[in-house]
Write a structure and sequence with these properties.
Keywords: FAD, Flavoprotein, NADP, Oxidoreductase. The chain is of the alpha/beta class. Helix content is 20%, strand content 27%. It has 6 helices and 21 strands. The longest helix has 19 residues. Bound molecules: flavin-adenine dinucleotide.
């Protein structure tokens, strides 16, 4: 089976910022690269907040997240890696020659010398509203993420949730929606203090400790919501209110899932994989980058994902060829960019 498959130097699992930057950097190291992403689009968890402004990536002035994703994808494609979407990597088999076959949920196989797991916290799914029949409204006005703010203009929006993201969305929607109602099952919100204070003093309608008890709709659209007071034990009480709404947004968090990778024999924590200084795991040839990596000084930031990715690629390169340089030559003096620089028509002055 393996013989017919094309052999890659490195297969990167996960198309978030860590995986995307690894796909670029492995090109700098002249490695034949494949990237496999479970979702049908690249960007990882950045896809959760496409409209937010990102300020904390070095050298990048404030940028809308969706634009940064676009730039990361463009950069990842510099050395033309093979990119596979909509395949969740599930299985691993080591061949006698030390190379590996990874399989995916679609039944496809991939042959590789090394692996970089850039899984984030696994394949993420929104925690669903636990009400029978709620899913039928997902095609219309029951949303689990805010992707296009304009869609909320002039609408009466009810948002259920109390974490950072819920508070952020409520604040962003305030100036666009006709009204914003926030329902949270705890008395206190978990978001940044300053934002919570702003929200509490704003014109938003805040209901705590309340939770959605019932959705009222006709056809496939929600028209009103019954919320119920939550008691100290977390149970819904008989104290209810009925609210007319145009759109309901649920932000009850995300649930990650590493899937069958947990059975590969990797040393694993619940949400991460311990690594050494080269991002190597306990399984030879398997490296980790980004939020999946567990080491004492780990930065759970986009910027941290980039450093991890370069380290993991260098680790993979040295695993394949122990005589290789410990890191790539810097891009300003890397022959791989000579032709590309010419193509960019960089003038002497710019260069
Ligand atoms: C709301 C929010 C706001 C944030 N704001 C900022 C910010 O302003 N600045 C900042 O620096 N950071 C921010 N972060 C954190 C940042 O998004 C993460 O640190 C970053 O996305 C981690 O990148 P990653 O590539 O390690 O993982 P992820 O972005 O989680 O990407 C992992 C990818 O791997 C895929 N995957 C998982 N398992 C498999 C599998 N078995 N097979 C195939 N594919 C798989 C997933 O589908 C996913 O696409 C924010 C995070 C959130 C949730």
């Amino acid at each position: 089976m393996a013989v017919e498959l094309e052999l890659y130097d490195v297969t990167i699992v996960g198309g978030g910022p860590a995986g995307l930057y690894a796909a670029f950097y492995s090109g700098m190291r002249d490695m034949k690269t494949k990237l496999i992403e479970a979702k049908d689009e690249l960007g990882g968890r950045m896809l959760i907040y496409p409209e937010k402004m990102i300020w904390d990536v070095g050298g990048v002035t404030p940028i809308r997240c969706e634009k940064l994703i676009q730039q990361l994808i463009e950069q990842a494609q510099t050395f033309e890696p093979t990119i596979v979407l909509s395949q969740q990597v599930t299985g691993l088999k080591r061949l006698e020659d030390g190379t590996m076959i990874v399989t995916s949920n679609t039944g496809e196989s991939h042959h590789t010398r090394t692996l970089i797991l850039a899984l984030g916290y696994g394949v993420m799914k929104h925690a669903k509203l636990e009400l029978e029949g709620a899913d039928r409204y997902e095609v219309t006005n029951l949303h689990y993420t805010v992707t296009e703010l304009e869609g909320y203009r002039g609408k009466h929006v009810l948002l259920s949730g109390g974490g950072d993201t819920a508070v952020d969305w409520a604040m962003e929607l305030e100036s666009i929606a006709a009204s914003v109602t926030v329902v949270h099952r705890r008395e206190r919100f978990g978001g940044h203090e300053k934002n919570v204070k702003y929200m509490m003093e704003s014109s938003m309608n805040i209901h705590t400790p309340y939770a959605i008890a019932q959705l009222h709709g006709s056809g496939n659209a929600i028209e009103a919501v019954t919320i119920a007071r939550v008691d100290a034990e977390g149970r819904l009480t008989e104290e209810t209110k009925r609210l007319e709404v145009d759109i309901v947004i649920i932000n009850h968090g995300l649930l990650g899932d590493f899937g069958p990778i947990v059975d590969w024999g990797l040393e694993m924590g619940k949400w991460d994989i311990p690594v050494d200084e080269r991002m190597a795991t306990n399984i030879p040839g398997i490296f980790v980058a980004g939020d999946t990596a567990n080491y004492s000084s780990k930065l759970h930031l986009i910027a941290g994902a980039f450093t991890d990715a370069a380290l993991a690629v260098n680790g993979a390169k040295l695993y394949m060829d122990p005589a290789a340089s410990k890191m790539a030559y810097v891009s300003s003096h890397n022959a791989r960019f000579n032709e590309k620089n010419k193509a960019l028509h960089i003038t002497e002055e710019d260069a």
